[in-house]
Fold this protein.
Amino acid sequence: MNTLLAYLDTWLAPSQFSPHGFCLWWEPGLIWLHAGSDVAITLAYLSIPLAMLAVLRQRRDWRYPGLVILFASFILLCGLTHATGLATLWYPAYWLEGAVKLATAFVSVATAILLWPLIPRLVAIPSTDALQAANSRLAQEAAEKDRLVRDLRRREADLRSLTEALEERVAERTRRLAEAHDRFARQLAELPAVVYGGKVDAEGVLSLDTVSESFTRITGWTPDLILPGFDWRLLQDEEAAARRGAFMRGAVQGGAMTSEYRLRRADGSWIWVRDHVGVVSLLPGGAAEVIGYVADISAERDVQAKAEANGRLAVLGEMATGLAHELNQPLSVMLLASDNARRALESHGQAAIPGVLQRLDRIANQAARARSIVDHLRIFGRAEAAEPRAIVLADAVAGALVLTGGAIRSAGIQLDVAVPPTLPAIVAALVPLEQTIVNLLVNARDAIAGQGVARQEQGRITLVGASDGDAVTLTVADNGGGIPEAVLQRVFEPFFTTKEVGKGTGLGLSIAYSTMRAFGGSITASSVGDGTVFELRFAIASLQDGAGVA
């Protein structure tokens, strides 16, 4: 205690020093000039930090609160410096005044060190006018985008109408082609699509003869780019270009073909297009004369991607209980194993280490299982705009079963899977395909569960993969009672559902249909016996369909 008092006495006692007023000869004018100024400065320096902290409290979004606090501390200590200077006019506590100045020095140096590196960031903070201008531009762009989307939808409707009319009247208009040629050319110039004509050789290479004027409007390229011998694949991404020959050969063999892919515009940007080609006449040597159109469907793809994302989230919601059970299993095993390990160590010490290591291995395995489930949930739940490429069907089935297998088995339903990994690689995108399989499994589970006590046998879902040399198929069959013929004709319509209100979005099978079409495959539904069979048919991947199997 005496030491503390002596220490304080050193800082506060006047000792041998004289008051500062003595140096001013106690001249009243000077005394009150210094005292009045110090009082005013002290009050101002105490007020300013309070005001800064009040602003910081109301503006929680300020990016550098630490800098404000340092400035407030610096100004506050400056005020205390003037306050101690005021006191030393009459009371010579110079040690206290020096300590306050030292604290002020530390804080001011720290503020200076922090401030200089932050100057570029502080200068880069947009001004209010800049933010308002940016918001105004965004609002204008949003309004323009809405207008363009509405115009695109209207033009797409016009295109579909004109195309259907064209297909219905081809036979009749063949005799009147010369008369209608000029009028038809004017109509094509106004279409929101590129209409083209040409010849396809036996190798599937298209040589263009004519291209509509809308080619420049949609792609940005000038019509003189399309010269005899021009290779359309130069405008496509690598994967779509690799499949171009097969697409054209399929059109010649089947009479018509539709494909969706990305097209490179003149400015380097990419748009999604739908390419439909039909055969006008067959030529010798396996060639054909064709006509087709390429329509910009970027907005449609965006809407479809959002619908697919909503469908994934809806499926995840329906599977929540089963997923909770699937995650609870490894967690329970880990808790039990860790408790047993702790008890073994407490009871047997070093002798229990081999058994503890085994339990730790078991905990690690179960943690890996839980992480796999969570990883699938994370990937499944986010939107993905992946291009179709070469993948293994068994991988997609395994991923779907990670999300649904536990829920199906916990419902007492037998799950039989026969999808060998040795099947040929297929053309598809992994996550959208997993979503399609998950939708089919959830529908099968709901159909079986909907029969309730009326069931005479155990519920069963079967997945079988096979290849016939031309394609790979995946059948998903159940014994959930089947689907009436009238309903089968509508199962792939958007928002059509036979489930109770609140238990289905009506988007699952519609998304599955669109997904399979985007893969260049197909999906069909049929009632067989006491259940339903869905068949997914995939194109077999060639070496050009991806750098490797995904």
The mean pLDDT is 73. The longest strand covers residues 270-282. The first helix runs from residue 2 to 12.
